[in-house]
Design brief:
Number of helices: 13
Radius of gyration: 22 Å
Largest sheet: 8 strands, mixed
Strand content: 25-35%
Shape: globular
């Protein structure tokens, strides 16, 4: 009997690395060296004799990378993702802090909903605050120190298939073409992955691509942080759809090198904060007072903008014809609205899926359907939360799932209750952090508790 999605997700969050390497294959090839590819390589190092990562960017480069155009924007490391990274890389917290990351325990995180300060959940999990280059750079350092992992700086150009299996990747570097062969190929090429085209060219099915247009506009700026040990290190403020503000939300985190990183987001034609003056004015006028205090600090550099047109999902799990020796991870499978901060945590859970799959010592001649079934649970959770919230935006017009009106009403009640009710907030935070399945919110006890809390608040 198959396990329920809630139990699958709980099991993935509890996955630990084996005490010692247990190879089930000779060589694995990972295409793409961003966070999802690096985490996949970390897992593969326990189950493959050798792992090669193919990426166009120089693996020794520090700071922002061309392959991560959104790397200059604010990134969140959810508590669930932080716990998974600590399991994959013991000592990750201490190393991150040594390199300038800032601790973000529950008491140091503040969250507002339509200007109302939400309750602090006392036993919620800890997290870290830092820039994307710092967090990704630390992951890269840890992975590249593994003795059986190496990198190839090249451009992947195609998939090599023999019989019923993927056996390698064609790549080009300096005008020279070649093939990196492997017993398992991992697609970590991001939201613009070319794997679908490669499968079709090789005579296989291409996965259906689902899109939801969101038209999100980001703006991020850095400010000098005079406080060495600020009381609040992560501050967020959201505006629910339908409010008078044209800004969907804002946040600021304490990051390395004595800086604050602040972000503002809007949808559709609303592009708030494109200039320094506009950014500062909106922080002061449209958000709680502490945002105005932040804006009083010196801005460091220019405002950086980024546009996210749509969320995307490729359904590998439904393919009837799929070569063996092939999996896909991270944004190459599902890329969500980044305002919810799920990307790094989802990538870590995909790595947990890969670890669970390989631990079962699968037949290399059989397509990795068990992996894609596990991954579907993770993707379904993040996709349903992201798209359900996006459907409430005025400019998004569906498609609406069955029962959306009722589920949307229930979701609004729960979100409103998180402002004042600790039990509801605790359960909600576990779900948002991808540590618990959304079904744990859809129980009579949670819903009634939320309704009572909202009645008391009124």
């Amino acid at each position: 009997m198959s396990l329920s999605p809630a139990r699958v997700l709980a099991g993935l969050n509890a996955v630990r690395t084996p005490d010692q390497a247990s190879p089930v294959m000779g060589r694995a090839v990972v295409v793409g060296g961003s966070v999802a590819g690096l985490l996949a390589a970390r897992v593969l190092s326990d189950y493959a004799e050798s792992v090669v990562i193919i990426d166009r960017d120089d693996p020794q480069a520090t700071g922002g990378r061309p392959g991560v155009p959104q790397g200059t924007q604010l990134h969140a490391l959810l508590p669930g993702g932080f716990l998974l990274l600590e399991r994959l890389f013991p000592g990750f917290r201490e190393q991150a802090l040594a390199q300038g990351a800032v601790e973000a325990p529950p008491a140091a995180r503040r969250s507002y909903l339509d200007g109302r300060l939400k309750v602090v959940v006392p036993d919620d999990a800890d997290s870290l605050a830092g820039t994307r280059p710092l967090l990704e750079g630390l992951i890269r350092q840890r992975v590249l120190r593994l003795p059986n992992v190496k990198t190839v700086t090249a451009r992947a150009t195609g998939l090599v298939c023999e019989g019923g299996a993927a056996t390698g990747v064609r790549c080009e570097a300096g005008g020279v073409t070649g093939v990196e062969s492997g017993d398992l190929v991992v697609d970590a090429m991001g939201r613009s992955s070319r794997l679908s085209d490669w499968l079709e060219q090789a005579g296989w099915q291409r996965p259906a691509l689902r899109r939801m247009t969101v038209n999100l506009n980001y703006a991020t700026a850095l400010f000098r942080r005079p406080e060495t040990d600020p009381r609040a290190t992560v501050v967020m403020a959201l505006h629910t759809p339908g409010t008078s503000s044209d800004v969907a939300g804002a946040a600021y985190f304490a990051v390395e090198d004595g800086r604050w990183m602040a972000m503002m987001a809007g949808y559709g034609d609303n592009r708030p904060g494109r200039t320094a003056d506009d950014f500062v004015r909106r922080l002061r006028e449209q958000f709680p007072p502490e945002f105005g205090e932040l804006a009083g600090n010196e801005m460091l550099g220019d405002v950086r903008t980024y546009r996210h047109a749509d969320s995307r999902r490729r359904d590998f799990h439904v393919l009837r014809r799929l070569p063996a020796g092939l999996v896909s991870v991270g944004d190459a499978v599902a890329s969500f609205n980044p305002v919810y901060g799920q990307g790094i945590t989802a990538a870590a859970l995909h790595a947990a899926c890969l670890s669970t799959y390989l631990r079962s010592r699968p037949d290399p001649k059989v397509p990795a359907r068990r992996f894609f079934a596990l991954q579907k649970v993770v993707v379904d959770v993040a996709w349903s939360m992201s798209t359900s919230a996006d459907l409430a935006l005025p400019h998004v017009d569906g498609p609406y799932p069955r029962g959306y009106r009722l589920s949307s009403w229930v979701s609004r009640q729960i979100v409103q209750a998180t402002v004042t009710d600790v039990p509801t907030a605790r359960r909600f935070n576990e779900v948002v952090s991808l540590r618990a399945h959304p079904r744990t919110l859809a129980t009579p006890g949670v819903i009634l508790g939320a309704l009572r809390a909202n009645r008391r608040a009124r």
